[in-house]
Design brief:
It is a single chain. By secondary structure, the chain is mostly helical. The chain is about 70% helix and about 0% strand. The chain contains nine helices and two strands, in the order ααααααααββα. Helix 1 packs parallel to helix 5, helix 3 packs across helix 4 and helix 8 packs antiparallel against helix 9. The longest helix has 30 residues.
Length: about 210
């Protein structure tokens, strides 16, 4: 049953993802490719929506994916709601259980040299997973034809320079400080959305 598969896969993601929502993207991409639940373009759109909507990125993305998968069943909209609940609960459950255990044994975990050593080993891997997600999503936006499993000249045939310019413009804005404060991410997201509407919606520039 698709809901059991959805629960099991997202439970594993919630259990083995360390470092936040972006660190889970490689695992999400892997299961989506495995079951064919979404296309790469749909996943990128969901990432954008999950980042732009209120709430934790990881939970939002799980909810969107679960809803999409659930709606493919004969239950329709109700199936989408059930899929969203299934994926959301599955991705949150491992963290909830672990946090409860850690809170009860906090002092022991805090002073354990084994735990500290494990965390020191995990941190570089988390950075690597996040960089992998950034590279994969970035290339999918800028080079939509590029396939990392089969890199060839055709993969570089389409270059989305407009997206690259938008990214290059907004990255320094995210680091800019005005009167000692950075520009709020919500302002940047809304501004980028407005730019996208004007370029791709009003002027209908082809990507």
């Amino acid at each position: 049953m698709i809901y059991l598969t959805l629960f099991w896969e997202y439970f594993k993601i919630g259990l083995f993802t360390i470092g936040g929502g972006y660190a889970m993207l490689p695992m999400v991409q892997q299961i989506i490719a495995k079951y064919g639940w979404l296309t790469d373009a749909e996943l990128i759109n969901f990432i954008g929506v999950a980042e732009s909507t209120p709430g934790p990125f990881a939970i939002n993305l799980a909810t969107f994916v679960g809803m999409t998968v659930g709606k493919t069943t004969s239950l329709g909209i109700f199936g989408g709601f059930l899929g969203a609940i299934t994926a959301t609960v599955a991705v949150v459950l491992p963290s909830l259980v672990i946090i409860i255990v850690v809170m009860n044994l906090f002092q022991k975990f805090k002073t354990s040299k084994y735990v500290q050593g494990a965390l020191c080993g995990i941190r570089p891997v988390v950075v690597g997973l996040i960089l992998s997600a950034v590279l994969t999503v970035g290339c999918a936006v800028i080079l939509p034809n590029l396939d990392f499993t089969n890199i060839n000249a055709e993969g570089f045939s389409q270059f989305n320079w407009i997206s690259l310019v938008i990214m290059a413009a907004f990255f320094p804005l995210s680091r800019l400080k005005i009167k000692g404060k950075k520009i709020h991410p919500i302002i940047l997201i809304l501004s980028a959305a407005a730019v996208g509407i004007v370029i791709f919606g009003v002027f209908k520039v082809q990507q």
